[in-house]
Write a structure and sequence with these properties.
Blueprint lengths: L5 E4 L2 E11 L2 E10 L10 E7 L8 E7 L2 H4 L8 H15 L2 E6 L8 H12 L4 H7 L10 H10 L4 E4 L3 H9 L4 E5 L10 H10 L6 E2 L13 H6 L2 E2 L10
Helix pairs in contact: 3-4
Bound molecules: guanosine-5'-triphosphate (GTP) and zinc ion.
Length: 244
């Protein structure tokens, strides 16, 4: 079936949509292509998973999520991305309307190859920030203009952003998105993600709980769901500026 493209701005087109049954309920998936008629643009297909009627909606939960193939497809334990995505879909479905905007900016925008290069450096002892820097890459190369355009296209008037990253809130606000609140998406650490999450808290200003016990990765530290679920976090010592 031919679906006529809808031009949102010269480089961003709505190109397809369909219902998508998921274990969290039925979403509508919209695909947006980042490519102008003259071939400029990344050629990437970004998604919005929409639950319920969001046109004209105010204060609805929205997750602006960045692609992470290693965790979302292959179940890597190094980060919290897949669980955050799952949590966001469940939360949006629970509330009854909202959206997950899925941006194809793998590896905080440096791409899959560079992320795997960074992982190799991390395997040699560098943290997620230093690994990028050693590669001569920015700590975070992401942009959110496409997310802002998608939310405008969907008719969303204002949002509660599901994120631990205050910079993401500010970036979206700077693009004109009315963010009325931030809702944390805290995932319990496992032995392989604990250091990474702690680095995000210490060096990237993410609003994450301070770990009262950092689980160790390595021989014998086989992560299990029960371990992940029962690890204690110390939430009594939030960083300054937690309140919003
Ligand atoms: N360069 C790099 N990217 C990573 C690494 N681990 C995960 N990512 C990418 O980081 C992106 C997710 O960003 P995060 O910093 O985890 O979280 P965030 O989106 O800023 O904040 P939240 O909304 O709280 O999830 C995804 O694109 C992942 O592919 C890493 O070690 N190095
Ligand atoms: Zn990830």
């Amino acid at each position: 079936m031919h679906v006529p493209a809808r031009v949102i701005r010269p480089q961003l087109h709505w190109v397809a949509s369909s219902p998508l049954p998921t274990r969290h309920g039925e979403f509508t998936t919209h695909v947006f292509l980042d490519q102008a008629g003259d071939g400029t643009g990344t050629g990437k297909e970004h998604l919005a998973l929409v639950f319920g009627d969001v046109d004209g909606a105010k204060g609805i939960p929205v997750r602006v999520h960045s692609e992470c193939m290693t965790s979302e497809v292959f179940g890597s334990l190094k980060c919290d991305c897949k669980e955050q995505l799952d949590y966001a879909m469940a939360e949006v479905a629970r509330v009854g309307r909202g959206a997950v905007v899925y941006l194809r900016q793998e590896g905080r925008g440096i791409g899959l190859t560079n992320k795997i290069r960074a992982y190799d450096l991390q395997a040699r002892g560098h943290d997620t920030v230093d690994a990028n820097r050693l590669l001569g890459l920015p700590d975070d190369a992401r942009k959110y203009d496409i997310a802002a355009d998608i939310l405008e296209f969907l008719g969303v008037r204002s949002i509660h952003l599901l994120t631990n990253n205050p910079e993401k809130v500010e970036a979206l606000r700077a693009l004109g998105v009315e963010v009325v609140g931030r809702q944390p998406v805290i995932i319990a650490p496992n032995p392989y993600s604990a250091g990474y999450l702690d680095t995000k808290r210490r060096r990237m200003a993410h609003k994450l709980p301070r770990l009262s016990r950092v689980p160790q990765a390595g021989a014998g530290a086989t992560p299990s769901l029960s371990l992940v679920d029962t690890l204690a976090v110390d939430e009594s010592r939030p960083s300054a500026g937690d309140a919003e």
